[in-house]
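Our consortium's second objective concerns turning raw sequence data into structural hypotheses that experimental partners can test. To show how far this objective has progressed, the report includes one record in full. It was chosen at random from the queue rather than selected for favorable results. The single chain below, 114 residues long, was entered without modification.
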Amino acid sequence: EVQLAESGGGLVQPGGSLRLSCTATGFTFNSHVMSWVRQAPGKGVEWISTLNLRNSDAEPTYAESVKGRFTISTDNGKNILYLQMNDLKPEDTAVYYCTQGLKRGQGTQVIVSS
């Protein structure tokens, strides 16, 4: 059974940083495409970033809203997907989810506020 567990969210001031983690179990991690998405209060799901773990030469992709500030990466040996978030803005406030296909975890809340 595919299971995804996000962690690392919290309250941070504008300009601050957080690193989110997604621990994946129940499937062959490096044979899939993994993504991060987010959902802000009262809004729809927004795609953030994708990393194709099936192709070690593939470049990650990012939404324009986070490009240059967020970095997706993995620790394949531990089946963990990361999202390093720098220069956070109030508009980054959302629940963040990692996804594998149609599967996603329970999410982790990020609040950017002074």
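The partners drew two points from this record. The two ends are 40 Å apart (CA to CA). The chain has a mean pLDDT of 94. Both points have been shared with the crystallography group to help prioritize constructs.
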